[in-house]
Design brief:
The structure holds 3 protein chains of 3 kinds.
Chain A: E1 12-21, E2 24-30, H1 34-40, E3 47-48, E4 55-56, E5 69-72, E6 79-83, E7 93-97, H2 111-114, H3 123-127, H4 132-147, E8 161-173, H5 177-188, E9 193-196, E10 213-214, E11 217-218, H6 219-231, E12 236-239, E13 242-247, E14 252-258, E15 270-282, E16 286-288, E17 301-303, H7 304-314, E18 321-326, H8 330-340, E19 344-350, H9 358-365, E20 370-372, E21 374-382, E22 385-393, E23 405-407, E24 410-414, E25 417-419, H10 422-426, E26 431-434, E27 439-442, E28 457-459, H11 469-477, E29 485-486, E30 512-514, E31 519-520, H12 521-529, H13 535-542, H14 555-566, H15 570-573, H16 587-591, H17 608-613, E32 616-621, E33 624-630, H18 637-650, E34 652-656, E35 660-666, H19 670-677, E36 690-696, E37 702-712, E38 715-722, H20 725-738, E39 746-749, E40 754-760, H21 764-769, E41 785-790, E42 793-798, E43 807-813, H22 817-826, E44 833-835, H23 838-847, H24 888-891, E45 896-903, E46 915-917, E47 924-934, E48 939-947, E49 956-960, E50 966-972
Parallel strand pairs in A: 1-7, 8-9, 8-15, 9-12, 15-28, 17-24, 18-19, 18-24, 19-20, 34-44
Antiparallel strand pairs in A: 1-2, 3-4, 5-6, 5-7, 10-11, 10-29, 13-14, 14-15, 16-25, 21-22, 22-23, 26-27, 30-31, 32-33, 34-40, 35-38, 35-39, 36-37, 37-38, 40-43, 41-42, 42-43, 45-48, 45-50, 46-47, 46-49, 47-48, 49-50
Chain B: E1 3-5, E2 12-14, E3 19-23, H1 35-43, E4 51-57, E5 65-71, E6 77-82, H2 90-99
Antiparallel strand pairs in B: 1-2, 3-4, 4-5, 5-6
Chain C: H1 2-7, E1 22-25, E2 29-35, H2 41-51, E3 61-64, E4 67-73, E5 76-82, H3 86-97, E6 103-106, E7 111-117, H4 121-125, E8 141-146, E9 149-157, E10 160-166, H5 170-180, H6 183-186
Antiparallel strand pairs in C: 1-7, 2-5, 2-6, 3-4, 4-5, 7-10, 8-9, 9-10
Helix pairs in contact in C: 2-3
The chains are: A alpha+beta, B alpha+beta, C alpha+beta.
């Protein structure tokens, strides 16, 4: 056990928690993370690396962890690639290691490591290019098996998720000292503040590095005071376990709240806050950098700050015998913390030639050995961790004899600090290289700018590069009064981008930069030699920084190696851009509550439940669900459709046509306006009459059609296609608002006010006449309409037909829909009344050669192409599409024209979209737009757009069915049934 | 994601409430215009990395069309104005001149 | 009114248990859409005659008796009234408006209206509406979206909102509101 006898600010030693890792039971204590609990249990090996399957241990204690990714949970709660350092322990937690087979300790993929010489940068690009087919069938499955990350879950996620929109003046990301102070200042100024912290605690590094005295108080007391003050403010919202994942344009930010990860969740597991903030303050602190040295990836090699965190926050010693390798003062803090906790510090290796200052003196005073200008030349170890290091002088070149051997089981690396500038970078802010402090800082000259062109993201504290508590709080205080702080001064650092070694070891093949993607110093050097000199190219060639940790630890070291190899200054090499999210977020939280039943809104007519109760099979039409057919008993689909078609041709059928768009257009200029909107003349329509109209866009192509009724002198009712109502209404408004704003016209979309039914078939009139009411159905002429009542319900009756039969359409306010529908069905059993669905509707209209927008048209088809020149006015000076129809391409001979196709084999139904071939079989000359079996004429029918089709009547075409088969079909009129229209005029 | 103020209803709302309508101030030519003029109207659009005058509609809101002057790279919004304005108002032109001078 | 109760029954639904905010469908709500020149004195007089309400200011609503008038757009208002009263409101408005260039339509059946109430009602709506509902005044009107459905929201009281959308989305909106009103999800908001 590595749990220390005392200490651990976050843990409650008296509350034990049991959990399992790779099936083995362990015990931790309340306050542990999975990482600290495993360390406390002496578990060092936590993963295998992605490419070489090298044994890996914990490197960090926070969200930047590259190695310790696990599968969390089991069954339908299984989730891969979760960082152990961010998993708060709870009773019953189950985790398994990933990227190993058959087990973590005996991993077959480790053979990759033996062959690592064969896997240089760009290996995949170079190796798996040829043959093409092999990638999909051989290489990819193999690579996935041995080199994958976690297992993707196979069951539906049982947890729930949600979004929450929020608004504030100032959003503060990070609950460390800088964030707390910035929030306090903003809160006191009366601003609406949101303060979020990704961990479960306030205070940040101040909880660990607690030697500063702030406003005369201990660090711990100062934190408690700030939290209490903020909690008392109504204008401040504080959320723990909430990470500011992203900052986008115009103050939009995403906060990822992990609401139920530290327990079995009740209610949503994660919540995504979609925040619009006037100002975003990034108090996001810093991340420590590793140091590239030979063998810096063995279990037991950790960031010095993480070693200190484990000791001071969780009372765990990552090692009993630690070598500290530092480039700055911070390593000394770790050495002192270990020493105070009773753990041996083998030596402090310092890159600086002459380390001085208070911390150095303290270390020396307690008897710690300090070795200046010295680094780690080589690490000896195994999957069980580090055993020994050999020192190397740092001032004698890259390939030198190694020095002293030091026994140890832990190495603490203090490679300097990188400000977390992500939020600045996400939203377009630039960063600049600070040579003196060896870090990228936010560039105050190039901040992210909002819609007014003003800066809206500001970094404070460690995120600006401030190293001491004094500087951190000074930057967070802003223009307000500063806070008196007493703390140690920081001495200059001496960064190490590459630690010398000896012989082949000095080539950098085991100097790891990116632990997660196994990118080494040698890889970057190779990339530079092969010409990938741009930082963006080197990144993609080597995959540096492209793993799930997005290079939080590796990028800067990698860019420094690139700069060094190219002989350039760091600032001239530049850096890659940090992209959101800061750490990965769950797929579930992206969907929020819009999953399952709520995934997509579906529009239902008032009769939806009735249809469902009658065995309706629904089909999507736009967002609507319409009955495709009604199944009786166990009948086959084709049987229902035939039955419904025959009902309309021989008796009377009811169709729920409520989805048809209905738009009221009213005003003194309504007729003039509709003349512009439709290709045909609408202003001449008489009140009480209907006219079928076509609508084109300005390209001259059909976009909608429908029947227009003139209700009175000033008022028209325009029907649109199902699913076209919103589009057509918006289209009319667009022209009224942006082009013809001088026209006195008002529109309203009344689609859903009215439910509408087609009553179609030879018995339609007989059925309607059985209803009580005041409408003269016999006297109502074709394309006429009348208002009245039926069985006491208000109706408007249109005498129009889309089936070719005697047909009426009844519109009634939607509240009456079910009553009217049931009354009609109840009135005519002996007349054969029953419902029909959309497939029967389509066959009925195709038998008559009526077009459907979206079937016969595809956005490149004019009214002339579909034989509807009669509906294109020649008298009107202008309408939308008129000028376009005069363009040469729209008037040329040989355009595709609508025709009918009759297959040689009357039983064969052509596939939808099948292509007609030219005489030489080399070219498609058109395609099938609608194709059905017609029970009425007892053979297959099809409509098609064929080049010059109207002049080719009787010609036989070959229609391609698949690569090998063609069938013959004869070009015919698209009107297959009742060419004279006798059936509807009775 | 843009934050846009609708000049018709005054609401300041996120981009998802709005629908873009492409370049603004394109004149629809008279019915008898030349093929070239008509092709220009139908197909020719600017795509600058600079200030762009564009049409937007408050689709989920008040339903009104309006104009917006927006920088396509910095996303700075210099102003919104009425859908029936034949050209940007002088104050927006002035603001653009001032903001893009340096 | 037996026809009505039958016809509107589809909108009468019982909310699930364990809600942290009340959700109800207002099945007897009538609605009238009016378009015209809101600044015109004749328009205001006709509206007053028909509803007793003044023309509301931008994104506001006015109330009198059983009627509430909501500002919908620069040239449009929506009247909330009893379902059975809507045809009378249309007739009365049109009569008073005379020859003015206006449009008044009974659209009672075109939309569904829900009431969401309780201390955390605004949190329920804020799960899908990109609107600052915390700072949303009583009587204020906002047309926006909830999830991807075009929605109107009016705050009718300190802890009470009415939400309306096209009727075809009623089932979706009902389910959405009930999920969002879950007690557990509101417990820490």
């Amino acid at each position: 056990m590595s749990r220390l006898a005392s200490g651990g600010a976050l843990i409650d030693r008296d509350t034990a928690i049991s959990f399992s890792f790779d099936g083995k039971k362990f015990r931790g204590v309340k306050g542990d993370t999975l990482a600290s609990a495993l360390l406390a249990n002496g578990v060092k090996l936590v993963n295998r690396s992605y490419k070489y399957h090298r044994p890996r241990g914990l490197v960090t204690s926070g969200p930047e962890e590259p190695n310790a990714l696990v599968n969390l949970g089991s069954g339908n709660r299984h989730e891969p690639n979760i960082r152990m350092t961010q998993i708060e322990l709870f009773d019953g937690l189950e985790a398994t290691s990933q990227n190993r087979w058959p087990s973590l300790r005996a991993d077959v993929g480790v053979l990759n490591a033996a062959a690592s010489r064969l896997y240089p940068a760009g290996f995949y690009y170079k190796t798996f290019i040829h043959p093409r087919a092999a990638w999909k069938h051989v290489f990819e499955p193999m690579i996935r098996r041995i080199a994958g990350l976690g297992r993707a879950p196979t069951e539906a996620d049982p947890d729930t998720y949600e979004h929450q929109y929020a608004f504030c003046d100032t959003l503060i990301a990070g609950g460390g000292p800088a964030g707390l102070l910035a929030a306090r200042r903003a809160g006191e100024a009366g601003e609406r503040v949101m303060l979020v912290e990704q961990t479960e605690r306030w205070g940040g590094r101040l909880l660990v590095d607690d030697d500063a005295e702030i406003e005369g108080k201990s660090a711990r007391d100062w934190i408690a005071e700030q939290v209490a003050a903020l909690e008392a403010m109504d204008n401040v919202v504080m959320r723990l376990r909430t990470c500011c994942s992203a900052a986008f344009d115009h103050g939009y930010a995403l906060l990822y709240e992990r609401r139920g990860d530290h327990t079995i969740p009740t209610g949503p597991r994660h919540r995504l806050w979609r925040v619009r903030a006037k100002q975003i303050v990034g108090a996001t602190g810093m991340i420590e950098r590793p140091i590239p040295f030979y063998g810096n990836d063995f279990p037991g090699v950790m960031l010095a700050s993480a070693v200190r965190d484990y000791v001071k926050l969780w009372g765990v010693a990552p090692g009993q015998d630690t070598v500290v390798y530092t480039t700055n003062d911070d390593g000394y803090r770790t050495a002192l913390a270990l020493h105070e906790a009773g753990c041996r510090v083998a030596a402090i290796l310092d890159s600086r030639a002459d380390p001085v200052g208070m911390l150095v003196e303290q270390a020396k005073a307690v008897g710690l050995i300090v070795m200046p200008s010295t680094g780690i030349g080589k690490v000896m170890g195994s999957k069980d961790g580090v055993r020994e290091v050999q020192t190397v002088p740092l001032d004698k070149g890259d390939d030198v004899e190694l020095g002293k051997r030091l026994q140890c089981d832990c190495i603490a690396m203090a490679g300097g600090w990188s400000p977390v500038v992500h939020l600045y970078s996400h939203s377009g802010g630039k960063v600049v290289w600070d040579t003196a402090q060896a870090m990228y800082r936010p560039d105050p000259e190039n901040p992210p700018r909002d819609r007014f062109g003003e800066p809206y993201v500001r970094l404070v504290g460690g995120a600006t590069g401030a190293l001491t508590t004094h500087d951190v709080l000074a930057s967070a205080a802003g223009e307000g009064a500063g806070v008196p702080v007493h703390c140690a001064a920081e001495q200059p650092a001496s960064p190490v981008w590459f630690t010398p070694s000896h012989g082949k070891a000095a080539l950098g093949g085991k100097h790891f930069l990116d632990y997660q993607n196994d990118v080494t110093v040698a890889d970057i050097r190779l990339a530079a030699r092969e010409g990938f000199e741009s930082v963006e190219h080197a990144k993609r060639y080597t995959t540096l920084g492209m793993a799930t940790d997005q290079g939080k630890l590796s990028n800067i070291n990698g860019h420094a190696i690139l700069a060094d190899t190219l002989g350039k200054a760091m600032a001239d090499v530049g850096t890659t851009t940090f992209r959101p999210p800061y750490t990965p977020i769950s797929m579930g939280v992206i969907a929020g509550q819009e999953k399952g039943l709520l995934f997509k809104p579906v529009r239902q007519t008032a009769l939806h439940d009735w249809h469902a109760g009658q065995g309706a099979e629904f089909e999507p039409v736009g967002d609507w669900r319409r009955p495709y057919r009604y199944q009786k008993g166990s009948e086959a689909r084709a049987h229902s459709i035939t039955r419904e078609i025959k009902r309309v041709r021989e008796a009377v059928g009811l169709l729920d046509a409520s989805t048809l768009g209905k738009i009221i257009v009213r005003g003194p200029d309504a007729g003039k306006f509709l003349d512009l909107m439709y290709t045909n003349m609408m202003s001449s329509l008489k009140p009480g009459k209907c006219r079928y109209g076509l609508m084109c866009n300005d390209n001259g192509f059909l976009m909608d059609d429908g029947v227009v009724a003139r209700l009175d002198e000033q008022t028209f009712l325009c029907h649109t296609t199902s699913g076209g109502s919103d589009r057509v209404h918006a289209w009319m408004e667009e022209w009224l608002q942006t082009e013809w704003f001088d026209l006195k016209v008002l529109t309203a979309n009344v689609t859903e006010q009215w439910s509408q039914f087609a009553v179609a078939g030879p018995n339609a009139r007989a059925l309607l006449e059985r209803m009580e009411g005041d409408i003269d159905f016999a006297g109502l002429p074709f394309m006429g309409f009348a208002d009245g009542t039926l069985n006491g319900m208000p109706v408007r009756v249109f005498r129009i037909s889309f089936s070719g039969e005697l047909s009426y359409e009844l519109a009634t306010p939607t509240s009456y829909a079910v009553s009217l529908w049931e009354a009609l069905l109840g009135a005519g059993d002996d007349l054969g009344v029953g419902p029909y669905g959309t497939e029967a509707l389509h066959v009925l209209r195709a038998e008559k050669g009526f077009i459907v927008i979206g079937d016969e048209t595809d956005g490149t088809v004019t009214p002339h192409d579909v034989g509807m020149s009669w509906a294109v006015s020649k008298k009107k000076e202008d309408f939308i599409g008129k000028r376009a129809m005069e363009r040469s391409d729209l008037t040329r001979a040989g355009r595709k024209q609508l025709v009918g196709l009759l297959t040689e084999d009357p039983k064969f139904v052509l596939p939808d979209g099948a292509h007609a071939l030219s005489a030489d079989g080399k070219r498609a000359i058109g395609h099938v737009t609608s194709t059905y079996h017609s029970p009425t004429i007892k053979r297959s029918i099809a409509m098609a757009l064929i080049e010059g089709g109207v002049d080719r009547m009787g010609e036989t075409l070959e229609i391609g069915i698949d690569r090998k088969t063609t069938v013959k079909a004869v070009i015919a009129s698209p009107v297959f049934y009742d060419k004279e229209g006798a059936r509807q005029n009775v | 994601m843009l934050l846009i103020q609708c000049p018709a209803c005054g609401v300041e709302a996120e981009e998802t409430e709005f629908a873009p309508g492409g370049e603004a101030h394109i004149l629809r030519p008279e019915p008898g215009c030349s093929d070239a003029d008509f092709a220009m109207y139908l197909f020719e659009r600017k795509n600058p990395r600079a200030v762009h005058y564009e049409r937007w509609r408050h689709a989920f809101g008040c339903g009104k069309w309006f104009h917006m002057a927006r920088h396509t790279h910095t996303l700075e919004i210099f102003g919104v104005y009425a859908a029936d304005a034949p050209e940007p108002p002088q104050e927006i032109k002035d603001r653009i001149a001032e903001r893009t001078a340096s | 009114m037996s026809d009505l109760s039958l016809a509107r029954a589809a909108l009468d639904v019982t909310p699930p248990p364990d809600l942290g905010a009340q959700v109800e469908a207002l099945s007897s709500r009538g609605m009238v859409a009016i378009r015209g020149d809101l600044a015109d004195a004749g328009f205001a007089a006709a509206l007053k005659a028909a509803t007793g309400c003044d023309v509301p200011g931008v994104r506001r609503s006015t109330e009198a008796g059983e009627c509430r008038v909501l500002w919908m757009s620069t040239d449009e208002v929506m009247i909330f009234c009893e379902w059975s009263a809507a045809p009378g409101v249309v007739a009365s408005f049109m009569e008073k408006a005379g020859d003015a260039h206006v449009l008044a339509l009974d659209v009672s059946d075109a939309r569904a209206v829900f009431r969401v109430s309780g201390e955390k009602a605004w949190r329920v709506l804020a799960k899908g509406a990109p609107v600052d509902l915390e700072r949303f005044g009583v009587g204020e009107v906002r047309r926006t979206r909830i999830a991807t459905v075009a929605t109107g929201i009016v705050r009718t009281g300190d802890d009470s909102f009415e939400v309306f959308c096209f009727r075809s989305f009623a089932a979706y909106m009902w389910d959405w509101l009930c999920v969002g009103a879950g007690a557990e999800s509101l417990s820490d908001l």
